[in-house]
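Re-running Protease Do-like PDZ domain-containing protein to confirm reproducibility after the cluster update. Everything else is unchanged from the original entry.
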Amino acid sequence: MLEGGMRLLFGFEEEFAEDIGNDLPKAVIDASQCVVSLASFDGGKRFFACSGILISCHKSTTRVLTSASLVTTSDTNDIAGNLEIQVYLQDNQNTIGTLQWYNLEYNIAVVSFANLHCDESAKFNNEVQIKPHRDVVVAIGSIWKTGKLMATRGVVTRRKTKLDCEELKISTCKITKAGIGGPLIDLNGNFIGMNFYDKEQTPYLPSNIILRLLSQYDAERTVVDEVIAHEVMKDDVIADEVIDSTERNRWPLPKPCWHHPSSVVREYKSYKRKH
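Result of re-run:
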């Protein structure tokens, strides 16, 4: 925060405005242990930072589900080349990650890392049905480098997303950009979806769609993108789409800017009244 109380908004280190991390059921606390933070770097300069979710650990390899924004250029909506990915775990360990798979239409990606065993993974349960405006859900995110966990509570609504992807759903959980790629879970710790960011509402991709996409990735293991991912990242990257970049869903994000705290409060209260 600058002298005079000016505050940086829409940065990667901005914490959730209402953090309920110390007031959560045990099942939610346990589920939060599968949340990590990730950052990508271009020549030593940070490119993007967000949250992610541990989804599997097989032998010495662990997989993380996150947002493809971690490795996507904002101007052309394509995969950026020559990025280094770092993963920061809850036990204060950090390691180098490798992009394994991505789908830019749904803005999801899988990053893997080796030689660090993780016992926790997201709890997928397709039988869970969330009732709009009734069942409480929790959005969880992790701040890059510090690894601080953040949580905010809300409900799922029937509102339509303003983003291009029509299969997204909306919750009233108010997150920041640091929460992109983090999980939306119910009070029993079940994984409901992966969060994205919008200034006025919080979209999430439902878990059933994520499971469908991950199943396709596991079954096919083939490169089908019109631009072969081998040319821009690691040799084992799989791109699960053939859509031209000009026709893909767009995932715009606000640029960081300075605000006075009073204007932030007014904006947040206005957001609350809409919901």
